[in-house]
Design brief:
Elements (H helix, E strand, L loop, with lengths): L3 H6 L1 H10 L6 H37 L12 H25 L19 E6 L12 H8 L2 E2 H7 L6 E2 L2 H19 L3 E3 L4 E2 L1 H7 L11 E2 L4 E3 L3 H7 L5 E2 L6 E10 L18 E11 L4 H19 L3 E5 L11 E9 L4 E10 L3 H6 L2 E4 L2 E6 L1 E9 H11 L7 E2 L13 E2 L4
Helix pairs in contact: 3-4, 5-12, 7-12, 8-9
The protein binds one RNA strand of 90 nucleotides through helix 3, helix 4 and strand 15.
Amino acid sequence: MLDPKYVREHETEVRQTLENCKSKVNISLYLDLDRRRRDLTISVDKRKERLNKASEEMGRMKKEGQDISAYRGKLQELSDEIKQMDNEISAVEKDFHELELQICNLPDANVPVGGEESNKELRKVGELRQFDFKPKPHEELGAALGILDFEKAAKVSGARFFSLWGLGAKLERALTNFMLDLHEKQGYQELVIPHLVNYQSMEMSGQFPKFIEQAFATKEDNLYLIPTAEVSLANLHRGETLPIGSLPKKYAAYTPCYRREAGTYGKDTKGLIRLHQFNKVEMFQFVEPEKSAEALELLVDNAEEVLKLLGLPYRVVVLATGDKSFSSVKTYDLEVWVPSQNTYREISSCSNCTDFQSRRGAIKFKREGGGKPELVHTLNGSGLAVGRTWLALLENYQQADGSVVIPEVLRPYLGGLDIIRPSK
RNA sequence: GGAGAGGUGGCAGAGUGGUCGAAUGCGUCUGACUCGAAAUCAGAUUUACGAGCAAUCGUAACGGGGGUUCGAAUCCCUCCCUCUCCGCCA
C-alpha cells in the first residue's frame, strides 16, 4: 500500500512509475475518492463537534438535577444526519481501499523499465561444467536412482506433486538443514511458523486480493495455505511497534509452499520445477528505512552463499519494473544452472518491500530520541527453494553412469555419504 | 466436541448510560535534591485521520462489526480471540 499523502503530492511521478509497472489502476479515481473522503470527513466532524457539545451540556444539566426530558429527541435529526454521512464515508473508504490494494509498490529508480525482457543480468558466478556425455534431466536421474517418483504422488494427489524416496528424501532434509544452519551463522533466527493463515495475513503481505486465485483455501475455516513463508513471517509483528534496539530482526524459516499455479497449464510439466507443493527456506528482515537498500544487497549475498558453498553455477538478475514482485521496490532473482535445459532457472527471489507491507500491517518502530513511530521496512528472500536446489544438484553433479556426487559441504548432513548410486 | 470465564493505555488493574481518552499502581522520560547514584518530590508519558506556517484545534479508537440512545468502555445482537475444566487426540 502506498502512502495516500505521497500519491497526492507526487501524482505525475506515481502515474509514470505505475505505467512502467503496467499497472492499470485508475489514479484519477484514487485521487477523487481521497478528496471526497477528506471533504466528507471535514463536514461530518463539524457536525459531530456540535452534537458532542450539546450532549455534554445535557449531561451537565442532568447532573445538576435539571429536567432534560424536554430536550430529548431534539438532537435526533443531527444525529441521524451524522449517521448517514458516516455511512457515506464508509462507502467511499471502501472503494478507496479496494483501489489502493490494487496498486503495486513503486519500483526503485534504478530498476530497469520494461517487462520480463528488460530484466538485467548482473553477474554470473561459478564455472559451467563441461560434460563429456549428454547430461540427463533430473526426473530421469531421480527415477533411475529410485529416489524420485511423480507417478505415486499423482496417485495420492494429482499432477504437480512429487515424492522423494530414501536418499532422495534424506537429500532434501540435508539441504534444508544445511541452509538453516548457514542462515543461523548469517544472523538469522530460526523459526517454525503456521502454514495456514487468515485472509488478513495474505492481504498484508501483498498476495491478496490480486493473487487470490493462486492460493489454496480451506472451505470450512477460511484459512489459506501459504504460497511462501514470507506471508507468515511478515505478519508475525503485525500491529506492533518494535523497540529500536530489536532492529534489524532477521528470521529464517523452512516451510512447504502451496501454489495453485493457475494459468500455467503446459508449463514445466516435467520434473521438480513447478509444483503445487514444494519446500523452501525463507529469510525475512525487519529493518530501519534508511538501511533497507543495503540490507537487500546483504540478503542476496546470504542467498548466494548457499549456491556458492554447494558449488552450483548461477547468475544474478535484477527484475524489470514490470516483472518485479507486487510488493517490492526492487527484486533480485538468483537463477541456477540447469544442464538438461541448458539454461538458468529461478531458485531464489530477494525483495525489498520498503514500507509497502508494514503500512498494510502497521508495523512500526520508534527512534532513539522518541518522536512519532515510523513504519519499518521489510525484506524477504528465498534461501533457497529446496526442491529446485535438489534438482540442480542432481543435474550438475551427475556422472555418466547415472550416479550423483554429493558436494563436500553436504556430506556431514548425510552421514558422510559421498555419492548416490542406483540401488539394485 | 461439551461447560464456564474473560478481552480496557507499554504492563498490571478500576470503571455497568453523561465532562471517561479513561482512576490507581508499575514502568518510561524530564526537572529538583545529590560529588554521583538510590530514595524522595514535581511534571510529563497512546495512536490514527483531518484543519493550520505554527502554537494549537477537531474527530475517532476501551477485541472486530452492527444496533438502542441526545449521549455507550458501560445496554442489546453478532463475529473473532484468549483462558479454565471435561472429552478426544499427534
